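Recap from last week: sequence in, structure out.
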Amino acid sequence: MEALRTPEAVRTVFAIDAGDDRIGEVVASARASGIPTHAVSEPVMGHLTSTVTPQGIVAVCSFVDVPLDSLRDAGGCVAVLAEVRDPGNAGTILRSADAAGAAGVVFSRSSVDVYNPKAVRASAGSIFHVPVVRELDVAHVLDALRAAGRRVVGASADGRVSVYDADLAGPVAVVFGNEAHGLAGDLRSQLDDTIRVPIHGAAESLNLAAAATIVLFEAARQRSARR
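Predicted structure tokens:
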């Protein structure tokens, strides 16, 4: 249904006829938009999907990524994924960026592909809402975003300043590093500053997607407070 809110992205819909009202609703919406729909058997659906238990409907969609230049004048925070390898984390960050009203999400060449099936599912449809840039070198991305007037900060467990004390209200890009190793040394030298999410309990660290969600929503809170 989220894909159908951007009907130009959807090419074809395949569905099983199982008397499921939810599937029927999606099929009806696709047909109303003039999108070809095809009824298939459960074995065929199993071959079309990558999940162990298919939900009974699948859409073939066009790629939705945009050029980096399209973020030049966008308001809000830009999330940059540098060497983020877990598709579940990547998709969840994309979903959080959507919920927080972020300007876009950049998937670097060294990160998991935004079109990885698990990343798409983890985004829960947000891949169709948030501008996504993919397959670029991080250094090029940071140079371009800085040239467009954005501060570039990195999120790290040992960041210099708390996310709650950092200025994230203006044009900013936040870089999120690898799940296991964080921000690479050569990447840190390209940052204007580093931020951290304070931990008050005994946990050593936060899951990357959880930390990114906190950062993105804090940036959204600061933007709202400044208006």
